């Protein structure tokens, strides 16, 4: 095995598994990093044909890639941007080969597999960075610090709002899109565990809920407007062990328009709302403290952070596998609940034609906001399309 020495300034050698879907975003980022001399793409793996310009470095498996490349081109880091149900076997294979891993979110489709993957990383002496992109923004850590040190007074809730719009094409993009299971394995492609997973994970970080043991219970209400198996309109309430703030999430991909998602810490002497995709936030203190303050936050690229960590292990990861325990517990709660029931047709307005058509749930944005303000599931708000039978409460397994 050939690895760069600690402190090396040579471009990091990167392999990418999965060149389509979100893999295309990684290719664009790698092109930027290659231009800057930070990284070098030495091979791609895909079961389908990659873009034409990658044919010369295309392989059908990671094992085939490792057998084919020279010692000087052996990857140091593998990016895995593949269907959710393939994450664990692919990451385990990469770790066993002595490679550090950038793993797309969610890292695992079942809570029990998180420990398996952590054990594999520990045995290999390698690291796993998880692609929760919101963790690259400094705003998440700022809000977490403010909650922890009482800068906003006593914070009882961290609210997570996501009103996105997805069309039929989005859920037809692959065999696993919008699925809870595929070929006997979990997929977990629901609104809270994939498109808006960044929001949920960041909300947990801000509230100081990091481990499975930090969670007392998770309340879920899962519904769907799209013709899919998974949830697209979801309420979550994560109550902590102890007296810290709860995390309340109201999320949908059936909104009339797409707006920036936000996370807000609500305290007795102020609030702080972070628009994490834009890296801006608005902090409002009590009236005596003056006007609201608008803040802009620095963003670090998660792959660059992983490269820096590989070059110098004293550099901490922004989104380590070990930091995803609480999120994986929330995913387990969602996957343990009954399959989401469809929202009645009379409460859904389909707009557009063909694959571009998208559903809009009746009064969905107002319902999301009310649910957050009151900390209650949709069905407790008197919403016509919600059903209290969909509300489930999950508690973590005994250690």
UniProtKB/TrEMBL annotation:
Record Pfam families: GFO_IDH_MocA (PF01408)
Gene Ontology molecular functions: nucleotide binding; oxidoreductase activity
Domain Gfo/Idh/MocA-like oxidoreductase N-terminal intervals: 13-132
Keyword terms of this UniProt record: Oxidoreductase
InterPro entries (alphabetical): Gfo/Idh/MocA-like_OxRdtase_N, Gfo/Idh/MocA_oxidrdct_glycsds, NAD(P)-bd_dom_sf
Protein name: Dehydrogenase
């Amino acid at each position: 095995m050939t690895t760069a020495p600690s402190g090396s300034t040579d471009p990091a050698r990167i392999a990418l598994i999965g060149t389509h879907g979100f893999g295309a975003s990684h290719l664009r980022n790698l092109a930027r990093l290659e231009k800057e001399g930070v990284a070098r793409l030495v091979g791609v793996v895909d079961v389908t044909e990659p873009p034409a310009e990658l044919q010369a470095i295309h392989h059908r498996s990671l094992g085939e890639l490792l057998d084919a490349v020279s010692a000087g081109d052996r990857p140091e880091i593998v990016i895995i941007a593949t269907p959710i149900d393939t994450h664990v076997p692919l990451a385990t294979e990469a770790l066993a080969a002595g490679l550090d891993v950038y793993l797309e979110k969610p890292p695992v489709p079942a809570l029990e597999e998180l420990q398996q993957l952590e054990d594999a990383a520990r045995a290999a002496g390698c690291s796993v960075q998880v692609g929760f992109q919101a963790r690259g923004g400094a705003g998440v850590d700022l809000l977490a610090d403010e909650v922890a040190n009482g800068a906003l007074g006593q914070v009882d809730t961290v609210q997570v709002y996501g009103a996105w719009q997805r069309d039929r094409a989005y859920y037809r993009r692959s065999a696993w899109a919008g699925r809870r299971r595929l070929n006997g394995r979990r997929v977990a492609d629901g609104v809270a565990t994939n498109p808006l997973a960044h929001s949920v994970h960041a909300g947990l970080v801000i509230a100081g809920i990091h481990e499975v043991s930090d969670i007392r219970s998770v309340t879920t209400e899962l519904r769907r407007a799209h013709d899919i198996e998974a949830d697209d309109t979801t309420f979550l309430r994560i109550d902590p062990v102890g007296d810290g703030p709860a995390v309340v999430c109201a999320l949908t991909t059936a909104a009339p328009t797409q707006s920036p998602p936000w996370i807000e810490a609500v305290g007795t002497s102020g609030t702080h709302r972070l628009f994490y995709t834009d890296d801006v936030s608005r902090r409002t203190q009590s009236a005596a403290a003056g006007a609201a303050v608008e803040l802009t936050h620095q963003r670090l690229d998660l792959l660059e952070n992983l490269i820096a960590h590989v070059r110098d292990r004293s550099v901490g990861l922004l989104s380590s596998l070990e930091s995803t325990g609480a999120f994986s517990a929330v995913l387990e709660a969602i996957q343990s609940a009954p399959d989401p029931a469809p929202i009645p047709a009379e409460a859904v307005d389909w707009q557009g034609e063909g694959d571009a058509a998208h559903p809009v749930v009746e009064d969905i944005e107002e319902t999301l906001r009310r649910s957050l303000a009151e900390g209650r599931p949709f069905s407790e708000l008197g919403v016509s399309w919600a059903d209290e039978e969909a509300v489930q409460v999950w508690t973590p397994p005994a250690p």
